[in-house]
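Bug #77: duplicate submission created two jobs. Keeping one. Sequence:
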Amino acid sequence: MSHPKFTKLIDYEALKEQYGESDPSITQKELEKSSSGHFSQDHADPNALSFSSDNLKSDQGLTGTRLRSYAFAVLTRKEYSKADLIEKLAMYAQSRDEVIELVNELARENYQSDLRVAEMMLRSQVRKGKGPNRIKLALRSKSLDKTLIQDDLNEIDWYEQAYQLKIKKYGVKVEKDQKLKAKQIRFLQYRGFEMDVIMKAISRKEDEE
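Kept job's structure:
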């Protein structure tokens, strides 16, 4: 449905101050808060948690058993996407190629899982009232393929999500004033909802299903 009075392009930087939110891409803190930690201490090397800053910042860098132990230490604290784990380990490793080989092995053994990270991010973003466009943006920021959770995205009732978000902020009244309606549209666009869903949500009457 086309609504020429309202722009379809979203200036996130301009809107984030208006709605008091952080950058639209998922932040490291959001991921840490939502992570419950897939790994237990049983999976890690006995020395995995013994790393100090001095050990990690050696001139030679980590390799072999020490690199593997550090990888487990990292993964016991929280989940990482494959891309983020590679960058994390490469900061302290002697060889980036060894890091990539190790991370690929950890992924094959299911110690690291992009699917788990994507599912975790989806749950976190939905709880925060984010729509599909913001969720896809968050996934892209972690180099995660949206197809990992495409089925989950398709199963969510985005219309209901948008409507509940609208009434929480603006109430159940169907706004007729064009300026106030435009404000609601911009808000839901910023949250990541599609225009057709937005128009249905802001036009829905209280007694409608």
